[in-house]
Amino acid sequence: MEPAPPNPGRLMAERTPRKERIEPSFGASKATRKSDELSVTAEDRVVAPAPRGKSGSRKAAGAKTGGKKAGEKPSGRNKAAGAKSKRGGGGGSGGGEGATRRRIFKFLRTFVYWSFIAGIWAAIAAACVVGYYAVRLPAMSSWSIPARPPNARIVSVDGKLIANRGQTGGEAMRLDEMSPYIPMAVIAIEDRRFREHFGIDPIGLARALATNLLTGRTVQGGSTLTQQLAKNLFLEPERTLERKVQEAVLAIWLETKFSKDEILELYLNRVYFGSGAYGVDAAARRYFNKSARDVTLDEAAIIAGLLKAPSRYSPARDPKAAEARAQVVLAAMRRSGFITDREAAQALAMQPASARRYRRGSQQYVADMVMAQLPALIGEMRTDVVIDTTVDLDLQQLAGSIIADTIAKNGAKSRISQGALVSLDGTGAIRALVGGKDYSQSQYNRASDAERQPGSAFKPIVYLTALEAGRTPESMREDAPVKIGKWTPENYDRKYRGQVSLSTGLAYSLNTIAAQLVMEVGPKAVIETAHRLGIRSTLQDNASIALGTSEVTLMELTGAYAPFANGGYAVTPWLIRRVTTSEGKVLYERKGTPAKPVVRARELGMMNAMLERVVSDGTGKRAAFPGWEIAGKTGTTQNSRDALFVGYTANLITGIWYGNDDGSPTAHVTGGTLPAESWSKFMAAAHKGVPVSELPGRYVPQAPAEAQGGQIASGSEQPFGDGRNTFGTGQAGGPRPGADIGGADNQRRPRNILELLFGRRQG
Asked: Mean pLDDT over all residues of the chain?
């Protein structure tokens, strides 16, 4: 009979009461086995440490491992285990904290591991992005610093700066030439780790990123000066990832090619400071009217502050904002150790800067003319150039202030809003030129570009034509109403003086006399004389040319008077003497050309005698100043729209105009009032310390016809041309015309009304 299968429940029940562990053996009991037999007993078993956990588990472990017979003392190991069990029993917090620490450690270890892995992949991805955008740049072998746009340095006859012109607005300067405060201020506020980084500043970039994240908006930029230079030199101003990557690549390239000082110098000469100013020299001249060499600490702080926002912090636009930004720059300079507390305090006490308006000053009209003429002389400007002009800067500034002050004081009551001035020497060299009262308000050059009626200032050309036809200053004409076709010219005061000499007619600017002379010699002859003297404008072939109704520029009208001052030679007003590169290579130099004689000695002496009388006894009395022989002529157009005075000494020829751009009438301003007064102020100052010279040509006047019974000259005077006097011989002490010039016909009475009106013999 097969035994029944064991009952698991019974077996468990039978095992339970057993108090000793049944150890495996090799077939022999402890009592029977021999000492040399291999066996394992409970005493030979290594007691395993009790597992941590609930106290019940520890008790169970104790029951299993500490099973001693009753009455036996526990061993030392069991005592320690028991003590440990007692401490752990009833509180598993110690074990729980340990488990928590292990879990945190495991989490951190995992996080660091995967972060490291992610960082590797991010670096690979970044390298791919950088590589992708970098290959879109031109080949590195072709990289070079683009040439700085050339600058034109325009200087006066004695080397003083008139203006800088070109795209930059200033000259390039070496780092050791500019004020040391400028690079200090720029480094302190824009890139204080400039001397330490390699073109990219990871620390600065991280700081800017953290600041922007904390504020929730962009308040700091992480670009270095080198990156900003790379952007300015090579890249378009776009906010794209591609541009930022290319900017970083180019910045690193710049750092490998140039020293820190070279990079800083390039940056300071290229960066934009607002108002068309590129580079620190342009900024210094734009805002403080000085060279970057002379910039003070507070001014350097203002210039550096412009870099963040040139328009917002411009001292010309908002001095308060410029001051506040400058104080931020000064604080940064102090933190960087560039300046002391005392220097910072002194600069912080500055008043808000009041910048001049852009390109202020009358000399800017000269600079405009220079730049307009330059291409015809040297072609395209490819390098920095120095342009030597004929302008005397002291006279130029004096002229500008006289025009501006006269309009400021008299503009409202006299109803004038603009003025212009041209001053030439005997060669035609422009010594001063003012194109308007304020260049910053209007750049239109009224001296060289505006064509206006000269009025009676044109009459000397009419009288010269009559003298060349045989008349003399003593030739008589009747000052009476004249009608030429439908035109009836009147004198300015609408009064008539009867029989007068030509000298009197010019001195008092009698319109009737000038009209008669034009009809005698013909308008075409007058036009030919005007062109010979240098007037290039189109003149109308009609009788009204006698009163200056054809429009001309102030410059060409002034130039037409020059032959009377220089001995009879024609001039063309000119401005540029020489053009050189900054290294001294001559690109252009004006060559002297033989002067062309256009006024003969006879007429030269007569004209100077008559035009001197205009100032001494006629309409130009207010132009007089002591010590010099002065000649000139007033001019006033219809309804007093334009008022002029053009006059000269043996040293200078100067013309002045006042009026309005829209041609509106003035408040009865004539050439003998404000223009003559301004002329006198300018010329008196211009002649201080200059050796006195006499006007060329000599003329001994005949006895006035008015004192000889009122006899009137006929129109039969013969041109003076005995072969001994030619154009250009009329210098001081030159030939003098004889007393019988004009012939006996000068003593004849008119035989009819036509002779009375026009001086022509009939029949």
From this structure: 80
Judge whether 171 counts as a catalytic residue.
no
Residues whose CB falls within 8 Å of the CB of residue 537, separated by 6 or more in sequence, listed in order: 451, 550, 551, 552, 553, 556
For the stretch 604-644, pLDDT in tens is 999 999 999 999 999 999 999 999 999 999 999 999 999 99
pLDDT per residue as tens digits for the range 529-585: 999 999 999 999 999 999 999 999 999 999 999 999 999 999 999 999 999 998 999
Tell me how crowded residue 40 is: count the other CB atoms within 10 A of its CB. 11
Domains of the chain: 178-348 (1.10.3810.10), 455-552+561-570+595-672+696-752 (3.40.710.10)
Angle between helix 55-65 and 76-88 (nearest 10): 170
One-character DSSP codes across 389-401: ES--HHHHHHHHH
Tell me which of 190, 255, 612, 717 is the catalytic residue: 190
What gap in Å lies between CA 387 and CA 162, rounded to an integer?
10
CA separation for the pair 521, 461 (Å, rounded) = 12
Interatomic CA distance for residues 677 and 680, integer angstroms: 5
Beta bridge partners of 164: 153
In angstroms, the CA 644 to CA 659 distance is 9
Token digits of residue 637: 């157009």
Q: How many CB atoms lie within 10 A of CB 12?
A: 9
Strand (E) positions, 317-457?
385-389, 418-424, 430-434, 451-452
Name which of 661, 662, 679, 558 is nearest 615 in CA terms.
679
Catalytic residue among 456, 509, 640, 680: 456
Residue with tokens 């734009």: 286
**Distance (Å, whole) CA 517 – CA 501:** 12
Kindly give the pairing relationship between strand 151-155 and strand 385-389.
parallel
One DSSP character per residue, 571-591 reads ---B-EEEEEETT--EEEEPP
Question: Residue 157: pLDDT above 90?
Answer: yes
What pLDDT is stored for residue 101 in this prediction? 83
Compute φ and ψ for 507, nearest 5 degrees: -60, -40
Tokens representing 708 are 């000889």
In the three-class reduction of DSSP (H, G, I as helix; E, B as strand; rest coil), residue 86 is classed as: helix
Q: What tokens appear for 235 in the block?
A: 């890249």
* Residue 753 pLDDT > 80: no
DSSP secondary structure letter of residue 386: E
Beta-strand ranges (E) seen in 512-585 are 552-553, 576-581
**Is the sign of the CA dihedral 271, 277, 281, 283 positive or negative?**
negative
Q: How far apart are CA 537 and CA 630, in angstroms?
A: 27
Using the 8-state DSSP alphabet, how is residue 746 labeled?
A: G
Question: Which three-class secondary structure state does DSSP give residue 43?
Answer: coil
Which of 312 and 19 is assigned the larger pLDDT? 312
Helix H segments across 147-279? 181-190, 202-215, 225-234, 241-257, 260-270
| 597 SS3 class | strand
- pTM for the full predicted model: 0.70
Q: Give residue 129's identity as a one-letter amino acid code.
A: V
Answer whether 155's CB lies under 8 Å from 387's CB: yes
- For residue 62, pLDDT over 90 is answered with no
Token pair recorded at residue 182: 């400028």
Q: Report how far apart the first and last C-alpha atoms of the chain are (Å, whole number).
A: 189
C-beta neighbour count of 182 within 10 angstroms: 26
Is position 537 annotated as part of the catalytic site?
no
**24-38 pLDDT, tens digit each:** 554 444 444 444 445
Residue 46 CA to residue 387 CA, distance in Å, equals 107
Handedness of CA 737, 743, 744, 745 (dihedral sign): negative
